[in-house]
Write a structure and sequence with these properties.
CATH architecture: 3-Layer(aba) Sandwich
Strand order of the largest sheet: 3-2-1-4-5
Protein name: Molybdopterin oxidoreductase domain-containing protein
Number of helices: 11
InterPro entries: Mopterin_OxRdtase (IPR006656), Prok_molybdopt-oxidoreductase (IPR050123)
Keywords: 4Fe-4S, Iron, Iron-sulfur, Metal-binding, Oxidoreductase
Pfam family, one: Molybdopterin
GO biological process, one term: respiratory electron transport chain
Helix content: 40-55%
CATH topology: Dimethylsulfoxide Reductase, domain 2
Length: 204
Amino acid sequence: NNVDHCARLCHASTVVGLKAAFGSGAMTNSIHDFENADLFLVTGSDTSEQHPLIGSRIINAVNDKGATLIVVDPRKIELAKYARIHIRQNYGTDVAWINGMMNVIIREGLEDKEYIEQRTEKFDELWKTVKDYTPDYVEKITSIPSDKLIEAARLYAGSEKAMIVYSMGITQHTTGVDNVKSLANLAMLTGHVGFPSTGVNPLR
C-alpha cells in the first residue's frame, strides 16, 4: 500500500504498542460501544475538545447512566469537570502511574485470574516489573497522592465494562510505545479487552 497517512507519525506508538499487545494497532471498540461502558479512564486526551462526538458520549454516559469517569491529565481539561477522580501527574511519568495501578490491583487480588490464564502470557514478568511501584513510590515520581491512585485502581479493576481512552498526550513521547503497552497491560490484567464496551481506544 502506497497511501501514507497521519497515523504513521502521530500514532506510530499506538501501532507498535497495540500490535505487540493485541495483534492490531487500532481501537478495540466502536464509537457506539462508548454508550454502554460503566467506567472511562481518559488520559492524554482533551476528548471533549478534540473529539466532541466521543466526548459527548462519555459525558452522557456519566450524567445519564451513572458511568464513572477517571481523568488522568496534568491539565484542567473540560472533561475533568465530570470526573469522579481527576489525577494530575507530572509530565512524562505515565508508565509510573500505570505500573502503580497494576501494583495495587495485583497486591489486592483484583486481577482477572481466569482471563490472565486463558488469554495472556508472561504474567510473572509483569509482576516483576510492577512490584516495586507501590503507591508511595509512585507518588514520589508522579506527585499523584497515593490514596487517589489506589481509588482509581480499585474502581477500574472493579468495573464490568471499562474503557481506556487516550490520545497524543500518551503517544507523542520518547516513551510513547512503553506508555501504550502499559495501558494494554492494565486492560489485560483486569480482563477489560476483547468484549463490547470494554477495551483500549486511541483517538486521533
